[in-house]
Amino acid sequence: MSKRKSILFTGKDQVQVVDEEKLPSPAAGEIHVRTTRTLISTGTESIVLGRKFSPGTHYDNWVKYPFRPGYSHVGVVGAVGEGVNEFRAGDRVATRGSHSSQVIVKAIHAVKIPDRVSDDDAAWTALGKIAQVGVRAAEHRMGDAVVVIGLGLVGQLVVQYVRLMGASEVIAIDPAEKRLAMAKSHGATATLARPVAETLDEVKRITRDRGARIVYDVTGHHAVFPEALKLVADHGRLVLLGDTGTPELQHLTPDVIRRGLTIVGAHDRHAPADPTPGIEWDARRVFELFLNYLARGQMRVSDLVTHRFKPDQAADAYAMLERERERAMGVIFEW
Fold first, then answer.
1. What is the per-residue pLDDT for 269?
2. Which CATH class is domain 130-270?
3. Which helix (H) or strand (E) holds 110?
4. Which listed CATH number (3.90.180.10, 3.30.40.10, 3.40.50.300, 3.40.50.2000) goes with 4-124+301-334?
5. How distant is the alpha carbon of residue 247 from its chain centre?
């Protein structure tokens, strides 16, 4: 196996592409994967690269340099370790590998890609899981009025999931017109291109003065939280799916107690990584469901890709995201 190329964050706002020694042969239960595509998780990786988080947060405990970014990875199995029976050399797989030309992962954390799903589309699998965790936490009912605040990568997937869940209204809120156009093409029934603090009257109008039973805050911005609470219907639910780097700045409002609201935190780690007795939806099954939706055309991500880079252009890719965040959506590295 040849040497590998990897993207590293070597410090705040410092991106390097490095050549590393080749990986060893996979151990028992592992697979070696040659990368074809990785997708930048623009929200998380921007927070990590710019150290946009407070001391003492989980980001602060997690981010140590050199840091290996990326967790949305697709490739071809090159070798399998002892005891691995579900994969063989040549299989296309989606994994949680980093931005690297080769990775070794536990076979239990990989999933085969259906023939009808492209490598580009499969690179969204990890984000498909994150969005699905949030949608499950919402406990939807058919006919729900839903608000999605923040139409980045995960917000776009939430729109598609809640459409499949039978929402009667899907109201998308984001200042960026391009993001809203994408959401509209994937099932949003109304789009509001304005700050969330200026949307209450329109949300009330659309929902016949009730508010939305389910509101998703997918922004990760602390200032959105109190405004999002205002949009929730009495006894409704706010799902925090955007992982802020400054949680100490999020504040409750009187809406929570006075109107009986429920606040639910949803995070990637909430779907168990390994199959667990008695738990129906482990991570692999969540991955497989997302890929099946893509294969059947019930969800669509190909038109969400806005930029492509070679790994050697990584510094340019992250610089572009800082300059043009509202214009960029899916940013793919082609290996």
1. 77
2. alpha beta
3. none
4. 3.90.180.10
5. 19
Radius of gyration of the chain (CA): 20
Is residue 14 packed enough to be buried (19+ CB in 10 Å), middle (13-18) or exposed (0-12)? Answer: middle
Under-50 pLDDT residues of the chain: none
Q: At what angle do helices 283-295 and 125-138 cross, to 10 degrees?
A: 110
Q: What is the pLDDT of residue 83?
A: 97
* Residue 285 CB partners (closer than 8 Å, separation 6+): none
Both tokens assigned to 82? 């002892």
Q: Which residues pair with 20 in a beta bridge?
A: 4
Question: β-strand 30-39 against 330-334: which pairing, if any?
Answer: antiparallel
Domain boundaries, the chain: 4-124+301-334, 130-270
Strand pairing partners for 32?
79, 104
Amino acid residing at 191: T
Smallest Cα–Cα separation from 47: which of 288, 220, 274?
220
Residue type, 102: Q
